[in-house]
Amino acid sequence: MLNQEGNGWTADFRGLTLRTALQPIYSISHKRIVGYEALIRAFDTDNAPVLPVQLFQLPASEAENLLLDRLCRYLHIRNYSCIRDELNWLFLNVSPRVAAGASHSDSFFGQLLKKTGLPPHRIVMEIVEQPTDNAERLRETVAYYKDLGCLTAIDDFGAGHSNFERIWNLSPDIVKLDRTLLTRATEDHKARQILNGIVSLLHQSACLVLLEGVETYDQAMIAIDAGVDFVQGYYFRKPTIELEGIDIQPADFDHLLSDYKQQTQVTLDPTRQLVSFFDGFFQTAIDRLCSGTGMQQACRELLDHPAVSRCYLVNAEGIQIEDTLISDAGVRNLDPRFKPLESTTSADWYRQHYLRQALAQPEQLQVTAPYLCVTGAYMCVTMSQGFYDNGQLRVLCCDILSNPMGTEISKS
């Protein structure tokens, strides 16, 4: 069913001609191609393209579905073996029905690799995330590919039926994030923070992370900021059936990373401005507290600032000493729906990173990135400074509303 055309191969199926298209996959840190995803392209007798979804609707039985899946993989490996590349990965899609239904001892793929001479460690088997009636068989199939020496990847994570339980059960080497996560992150800052969190969790699960569907400069910058390992998409290179010379045009990661470093520097500036601006306020408040002045009077300048939400004092064990002082700005931001969280008398803040930092480095003003404050479910930045009062270590903490941070402080 395969035909050689020049240096490449095509395949015949149900009157259609099948060709291999490759799309490069890039490592952001390495700034170069590290692999290619193989995609099937079908053409009718007039050489008009046929959509992949139409192609995969043609099989009339499970046996024919298995045949098409194997034919595509055979075609892709044949074509990839013709490329003068002895280093990078080839990403191959395997049908979920085939992966879940085939025996884990399926010898076809192992024989195929032997026949073509392509080392198994250069193959990444992609399995689309979707529910299956035979989760154990799917796990066995993934184990089979790993035993062959291939890498495994979960595809389209973040869409449909994605869940971390699948990650824990299958332990893939690579997780490909669905482009819908990127689309949402482009439109919504909160979704962007969630994307960053998902990437962090996947890394903690010992998975490398690939973000696909990167189509614009802004999306490329989001991918870089999210900390993903690999990127793929039209912004870098479209899939092509012209396989000769596919890897001779590198993407300009130097430009992207240079822009990212400049943008990150700008992003960090407000934090540095906070430390510079509030350092005097904190020192005044601490001096007053050490001289016996009460919290309300000691922190009056802090509480008068329109960006400050609240101030509170904590001991060396992380226990809050007095009631929280809420500023006028904090009162305006109180949401009655979260009233059960407002009282923080004797609250234990030791788990908070900003508190442990302040305890570990007394006399140095600490500042966090924006985060969700548990006392009112609003976004804030916390500043904290440890100090000694009559030999006892204390920490003065101050929450600053993150939304007005960039404007109100600069106007003050």
TrEMBL record:
Transmembrane segments: none
GO terms, molecular function: cyclic-guanylate-specific phosphodiesterase activity
Domain of life: Bacteria
InterPro entries recorded: Cyclic-di-GMP_PDE-like, EAL_dom, EAL_sf, Sensor-like_sf
PROSITE patterns: EAL
Location of the EAL domain: 1-253
PANTHER family: CYCLIC DI-GMP PHOSPHODIESTERASE PDEF, SIGNALING PROTEIN
Protein name as catalogued: EAL domain-containing protein
